[in-house]
Design goal:
Layout lengths: L3 H6 L6 E5 L11 E7 L16 E8 L2 E8 L8 E8 L14 E8 L8 H10 L5 E2 L7 H14 L5 H10 L2 E2 L9 E2 L6 E2 L1
Parallel strand pairs: 1-5
Antiparallel strand pairs: 2-3, 2-6, 3-4, 4-5, 7-10, 8-9
Helix pairs in contact: 3-4
């Protein structure tokens, strides 16, 4: 019998994308979270908005492996999709656990209790708190607000410290310009809504 989490994430009518995710990853222990701002190489915004970065979350499961959570917008007024993807990079240095392709800024946060924290545990928190039911702001933004909210959830559940959740909260309302090393600028977050 499938777990509640498994049933939810593989529901064809749900808001999950699981094509690149193996069920076996549910049991993987999580040692750290990496909140990743992806480069906007042209430093351009869309639809008259100032530029912003797309953000994703990596659940570190091994030295060179993680599960990526990518809250992506749907059509205006429609739910976003939470895409799960197993990520491996055998060329990455263990010191650079933020290995996805186009990162420009990463906030890495350790898990308080690795022995109790699995991918399924994290996804169960998302399901329990309704974080998989999310509509982006009308301007098509909202991944930063989703991560801001989820970092708070992780702190409340003692999965990460409140100090680390605050480090994430401080990083999210900024735009990290391209090329890397350019000073970040404040960029207000457009807030989506949970339903």
């Amino acid at each position: 019998m499938a777990s509640t989490v498994e049933a939810r994430i593989y529901d064809c009518d749900g808001n999950w994308g699981t094509r690149g995710f193996r069920k076996a990853s549910l049991a993987s222990p999580v040692s750290a979270f990496h909140f990743v701002a992806h480069a906007n190489v042209d430093n351009l915004g869309g639809d008259g908005q100032p530029p912003t970065n797309h953000w994703t979350l990596l659940l570190q499961t091994d030295t060179h492996a993680a599960v990526r959570l990518d809250m992506s917008p749907g059509d205006i007024g429609r739910p976003g999709m939470l895409i799960l993807e197993d990520v491996k990079d055998t060329s990455a240095s263990p010191a650079d656990a933020s290995f996805p392709d186009d990162r420009i800024h990463v906030v890495s946060v350790p898990v308080i209790s690795e022995s109790e924290t699995t991918v399924e545990h994290i996804l169960a928190l998302i399901v329990r708190e309704g974080r998989d039911n999310y509509i982006f702001a009308p301007v098509g933004e909202g991944c930063r607000f989703w991560l801001y909210t989820f970092a708070h959830d992780l702190g409340v559940e003692d999965i990460i410290s409140f100090e680390d959740a605050e480090r994430v909260h401080t990083a999210l309302p900024k735009y990290y310009l391209y090329p890397p090393g350019t000073p970040a600028v404040q960029r207000p977050m457009a807030e989506g809504r949970f339903f």
